[in-house]
Amino acid sequence: MNFKGLSCIFFSLTLLFGRTPSACAQGTAFTYQGRLNNGASPANGTYDLRFAIYDSTNTPGVLLAGPITNAATAVSNGLFTVTLDFGPGVFTGNNRWLEIGVCTNGGGAFTTLTPRQPLTPSPYAIFAGGVNAAGINGTIPAGNIGSGTITSNMLATGAAAANLNALGQSAVPSGGMVLSSNYTDLNLLNVGYVKLGKVDLGDVWEQRASGAPPVTRYQHTAVWTGSEMIIWGGWSGSSYVNDGARYNPTANIWTAITTTGAPAGRMYHTTVWTGSEMIIWGGWSGGTSYFGDGARYNPAANAWTAVTATGAPAARNQHTAVWTGSEMIVWGGWSGGTSFFSDGARYNPTTNAWTAITATGAPAARNQHTAVWTGSEMIVWGGHNATSHYLNDGARYNPAANTWTAMTTTGAPVARYVHTAVWTGSDMIVWGGSANADYRGDGGRYNPAADSWTAVSAIGAPAARTYHTAVWTGNEMIIWGGYNGYYFNDGARYNPAADTWTAVATTGVPNGRYSHTAVWTGSEMIVWGGYGFFGYLNDGGRFNPAANIWTTVPATGAPTARAYHTTVWTGSEMIVWGGYNGTSFFNDGARYNPTANNWTTVTTTGAPTARALHTAVWTGSQMIVWGGFMALTT
Questions:
Q1: E strand or H helix at 20, and its extent?
Q2: Cα–Cα distance measured from residue 242 to residue 260, given in angstroms and rounded to the nearest whole number
Q3: Residue 165 in 3-state DSSP?
Q4: Is the pLDDT of residue 168 over 80?
Q5: How confident is the model at residue 125 (pLDDT cuts 50, 70, 90)?
Q6: How far apart are CA 462 and CA 444, in angstroms?
C-alpha cells in the first residue's frame, strides 16, 4: 500500500489510567484513541503504529521517550485504540507532543505523520488517591507544603498575633494586607508575612535613585553581573570621574562603589567581567593623559584590587580586550599622534600577573581593529595605522602556546576599519566599514581551521552604507536603511549557510532614513524613527521576512519625530523613549503593540529628564534607562 497520501486525524485523546485502590499509586499506562485516514478515506486493516514523545511540535525537537511500537494494530473504519506506557518521569507538567509513525503490518519503513499531536491532561493524576493520616510520621519538609495550603483555621489561636507582638508590631485584621515601600522589609518577612509581589499603581516610572545613583555622565562603561548592573568612569561634562555604583533591579536600589583604591578617572577604557570581578584597564582623560594601569572591582566585598603594573602593556586607548575564561588579553591600540601599538599582554587576575604576548608573527601596529575569541584563539583583523593607514590583514593568537599564526590575505576583504566582525562558532564574518572616506558594502567569512576566506556574496547585497540597522533572526541577518550621501529605504537578508542575499521588499516600505531603530520580534523586524530627506521621522514599518511584506506602523498615537532614541522589545511590545529632533531633547515615548497595531503613551510622571544617546535595557519585566546626553551637561 502506498502511504504517501496517508494522513492521521485525531479526534479524541483520552488518558485513561486504570482505576486502582485509593491507597496505591496509579500506573503510567494510558489509552490513546485516534482515527487514521488513507488519503480521503478511512483506513481499514492491520497496521504497525510507532509512538514517541517530544518536547516540541517543531522538528527535530528533543526526544523524551520512545519510540515504542504497537504491531498488528487493528484499524476499522479509520478507528484504532492502543495502550501506551512510556514509563515514569515523562509527564512532569510541561507541554508534550506525540509523534506517530505508521506502516502496513510488517511493511518495513514507517511513514511519520504530521503534525505532532499535543497531549493534554487527563481527569486522573499519577499520584496516590489518598493516605491514612495516622500512618504519617516525622516532619514534612517545607518544600512539600503547597503555597497557600495552610489557612488561618489551621493555626493555633493567637499564633500570628503573638509573633507580631514579640517583635513589637501590632496585629493586622483578618484578611488584611500590609504595603511597604521596602521591597525586602525584614521586619515583615521575619514575622511570617509572605511577599506577594510588586504593585504598580498604573502606568508609572520608578525613579531609580534609592541609595543615590552616580552623577550624570556619558562614555562610561557598564557590565551585568547576573544580578546587578555596574556603572563606572566616564565624562561628567566637567571632569573625568572614577566613581560608580551598582544597581540591583530586583531591590530597586543603588549601592555606591567605593573609590578607595579605584583607578583615576577616565573614558575610552575597556571593561571585562570575569564572573566575580570587573576589570578596568587603559583609557584616556584628555590631552596626552593615556593610561596603562587598571584595577579589579569585587562587588561582593565592595573592594578594589590594583592590577599590577609589572609587565603591563604601555599606556593606550582604542585597543581591544577579550576575556578567555581565565585571562584578559589586551592588544593593539593608540596613544596619540603616530603612536600605534602591535603588542599586548595577558592578565591573570588569580595570580595578579601579566604575561607578555610574543611579538613574533604578530600583526602590524593598529587601532580600531576587531578582535574575536573563538574559544581557543583570539583573531585580530583590519584596522588603521600611520604607515599603511587601512589594513586587511591579521593573525590568530593562541595563548596556550603563546604563538601567532598569520591569516591568509588570499580572498580577504579589502582594507578597512570601524567594520564589524562576528563569530558564528566556526567562522568570523567581517562586513562593512570605511576606508579613505569610502563606504564599504562587502565582506568575507574567515575559517581558522582551513585558514581560508570565503567572500560574502555581492549578488543582491545592499549598496555600501553606514548608520544602517542589522538584526539577526536566528538564521539570517537583515540589513536595512542607512546613509552614504543618500538616504536608503532598501535592504537585504543574508543567509550565511547558503551565502545568499534576498532583497527586502520595497512595496509599502518606509521612507529612506538613518539613525533609526530596529527590533526583532521573533517573526518581524520593526523599524521606527530616524532622520531622512524630509527631516526627523515618527513613522515606521513592520517587515515579515517569511512573507517578504511590509506593514505600515500607524502614526496615530506615536511619539513625535526623533532620532537617537532607544527601543526595547518586551516580548509583546516595542517601547520607544527619549531622543532628539534637532532642537529638542525628549523624555517621553510610547509602547507599540504589533498585534493590535496601536500605540499607548508612556507616562512622563516620574520619568528621567529629557536626553538622547542614552542606554536602555529590558530586564524581562522593566525597561531601565540610564545616562545619555542633553546639550553639554548630561
A1: none
A2: 10
A3: helix
A4: no
A5: very low
A6: 15
